[in-house]
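Amino Acid Chain and Its Fold in Token Form
===========================================
Purpose: to set a sequence beside its fold so the mapping can be learned.
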Amino acid sequence: MNNAPTIAVDEVKAMLRRFTAERQQWRPDAAALELGDLILCLMQQADRLGIDLVSAGEAQLQRAVTSVRAVGSAAPRRGLALVRSCAATAETSAETSAAPSVAPPERH
């Protein structure tokens, strides 16, 4: 039996970055409704897996802080993102929004 995930987390993150880039010009309340729906979906999936999502997020944040500290002062100082992919989102949002959008089939 193969237990390897068929959808990689990096694929999901890339789709979320594209999702956000496509909504840059939306009214904040409309985008908030969709993001709220995504958060609820994540919470439901974590619950199904028996995972405390808040603890998992805190652990990921701690790993990010530890990673930044390990790099030390040699790296240029940047704001610490709550989620590692958020830092890349700001840099790639211009590239992503300039690229044509080809929506993959939904896998939700």
